[in-house]
Amino acid sequence: MSVTDETVLPELRNAWWEHGVRRRAETGVLGVFAELPQFVRQAIALAWRADKMRTTVVGLATLGSGAMATFGLLSTQKLLVALFAGGPTPDRVRAALPALVALAAATALRGALGIAIGYAQNGLTPRVNQAAERRLFEATTAVRLDAFDADAFADDMERASRGSDAANGLVHDTSNVLAGFVGLAAVAVAVVLINPLLLLALVVATVPNGYAALRAGHLRYSSYLAGSVRRRRRNVLERQMADRESAPELRSYGLRKFLLGQYDMVMGAQTTEDLTLARRVTTTTSVGAVISGLGLGGVWVLLGFLLAGGHIPLAAAVTCVVAVQAAQRALSTVTFQLDGMFTDGQFFKEYVNFLERAKQYMPGADRRDRPKPPALRRLDIRAVSLRYPDRDTCAVDQVSLTIEAGQTVAFVGENGSGKSTLAAMIGALRAPTDGVIEWNGRPVADWDRDAVIARIAVVLQEHHKWPYTAATNIAMGDLSVDAEQDRIETAALRAAAHETIQSLPYGYRTLLDRTFKEGHDLSGGQWQRITAARGFYRDADLLIMDEPSSALDPRAEDALFQAIRSRQGHRTTILITHRLANVKHADQIFVLHEGLLVEQGTHADLMARAGRYAGLFTLQAAGYQ
After folding, report:
1. CATH homologous superfamily for the domain 25-361
2. Phi, psi (5° rounding) for residue 409?
């Protein structure tokens, strides 16, 4: 089977959205030139927002450097005319002295301007990087959770992550291209003064290389877009083969050969693409170099013809040689930077487009202007449904229920029944596809979103291990300078985490990440205690706990559920767990099956009904007999 066979790794297939992107990437060179002014405007605008003073210095110094280049070439011509004139050598040297002084001054000033450009660009780079990254993170941290369910969002974000590098590259490339074009303009002025025909020959010698550079950059961009999924798959494999967390199972299940095989398939497809790209780029640049070489030879032939026919003096011919050498340097700068500028410009456009597309996933800005909700009195879920983009059926289907303040309720059911999805909607993490959730009789969407979230604490089953101290992990989200230590420890005690934390090398100040110096790692159960403590620390009106004890030992589990029961009567708690013995004391138990609410009532009511809940409870209880 071929290593590029897409039946082996579905992740290598081209997604539907790539076709439109590829068509845009295959725009002709004329289309590229049409886009360059847009890139220049974007680069200048980005740099200007990042640092106005340094942007001004770079622009003015670049123009000044080009003006000095032109002045230097004209001074060179005057110098040569004076030196090649008739008369005694001392007289010729004295006649050339003003031009020599002018040339030296122009050269020195141009060098000083180059230093100023370098200093300004070095100071501008980190500011541009920070501005671009900040804009990206502002978007990725603000989009709704359903954005990560959308097709191609991860690929869009992966390409947009190059935005800061592309922004810096675009700013630098624009500055260098401007310098190159100014240099070419200086050469053009000098050559036109000698003979206009030389300018035409020089254009023939430069245009093919510029075309080849743009075409090569275009090919690289197309290849980059097409390989987006392969890169993500390769990065995943690299982490799996070299990450501490995957290392035990890799060895336990003998996954080394399997993962290396997956890597070979992905990289086989990528290498084939890279070789094709290298061949096309080499062909394009070689053809451009040959044509430009022939054009440059034509310049020398024409110059020799003009000199032999007496159409130009020797001094002008020598000046032309100097000008052509300057043109080659400027051309090298322009062609190389045009390539980078176009490529960075396209990447930056992906970054800009991602920011624009992310707006459709942003919570309504006007929701922050809406009233803040009072303390929870009642929560009404009315015919709520949610369908994920890649599913044919609803994860939650027309569920209606009511939760009174102070109640402890439980969502139970088999895996995939919709418990966590329903809890995510109640916790304002997801918006219902249909139906409405009401806080004190008013739709949640009509309240200030941030204020609603502030009244809810969610302890997720798939919690994230934040690489911060134990104290910071518990007080996560507390924006005060110093979270209250007593409050942190109280929350840890309720979650049976206090003794675990005290046993760490630095107690609550221990960094919970072994990849850092003096960091420490925790077991799954210990992490679950830290996560539960985070929920208790917030002391919210509504606490949602999704499988909070799946990794806990019996003592820790008992302590946790005692803390949960202590909220009953004055705080509202939604509990999701498969250990049904822990929900016997719940005020209401809601049983879900395949997204539907099939039963509800107290433990006694449901057991007397002898339905789905009674069957699950009896089956689980039998295991303890």
Report:
1. ABC transporter type 1, transmembrane domain (1.20.1560.10)
2. -120, 155
Structural domain boundaries of the chain?
Answer: 25-361, 373-455+542-554+571-625, 465-539
Q: What is the CATH number of domain 373-455+542-554+571-625?
A: 3.40.50.300
On the question of pLDDT at 26 being above 70, the answer is no
Name the least confident of 83-97, 407-421, 522-536.
83-97
DSSP category for residue 469: B
Nearest to 595 by CA among 378, 379, 388: 388
Strands 456-459 and 442-443: unpaired
Q: Are 588 and 604 in contact (CB under 8 A)?
A: no
Distances (CA, A) of 268 to 226, 232, 258: 15, 15, 15
Residue with tokens 């009567």: 569
Q: What does the pLDDT read at residue 315?
A: 67
Cβ neighbourhood burial of 23 (10 Å; 0-12, 13-18, 19+): exposed
Beta bridge partner(s), residue 593: 596
CA distances 149 to 142, 144, 215, 294, 333, Å, are 15, 10, 36, 56, 44
For residues 427 and 543, the answer to whether their CB atoms sit within 8 Å is no
Residue 184, CB-side half-sphere exposure with 13 Å CA sphere: 20
Q: What is the pLDDT of residue 365?
A: 57
Helix (H) or strand (E) holding 573: strand 572-576
What count of other Cβ atoms lies within 10 Å of the Cβ of residue 321? Answer: 13
Give, for 383, the enclosing helix (H) or strand (E).
strand 378-386
Q: Is-above-0.90 flag for pTM?
A: no
Q: Which residue has the tokens 């960091």?
A: 519
Half-sphere exposure of 325 (CA within 13 A, CB side): 7
DSSP 270-310: HHHHHHHHHHHHHHHHHHHHHHHHHHHHHHHHHHHHHHHTT
The CA distance from 85 to 81, in Å, is 6
Nearest to 368 by CA among 287, 449, 438: 449
Q: What is the C-alpha separation between 237 and 118, in angstroms, rounded?
A: 40
| Helix or strand (DSSP H, E) at 165 | helix 163-194
Report the residue count for the chain: 625
- Provide CB contacts within 8 A for 445, sequence distance 6+: 364, 367, 431, 436
Predicted confidence at residue 31, as pLDDT, reads: 64
C-alpha torsion 299→300→304→306, nearest 10: 20
- Identify the three-state secondary structure at position 10: helix
pLDDT tens-digit series, residues 4-23: 444 344 444 444 334 334 44
Q: What is the mean pLDDT of residues 72-80?
A: 70
Which amino acid, 229? V
Matching residue, tokens 């130009």: 312
Provide the pLDDT confidence category of residue 240 given band limits of 50, 70 and 90: confident
Secondary-structure class of domain 465-539 per CATH: alpha beta
- 371 burial via Cβ count (<10 Å: 0-12, 13-18, 19+): exposed
Tokens standing for residue 83 = 């030196």
Q: How many CA atoms lie within 13 A of 302 on its CB side?
A: 21
pLDDT attached to residue 201: 67
Q: Is there a shared CATH topology between the 25-361 domain and the 373-455+542-554+571-625 domain?
A: no
Neighbours of 16 (CB within 10 A): 9
DSSP code, position 266: H
Of the pLDDT bands very low, low, confident and very high (cuts 50, 70, 90), residue 405 is very high
| Single-letter amino acid, residue 21 | V
| pLDDT above 90 (res 593) | yes
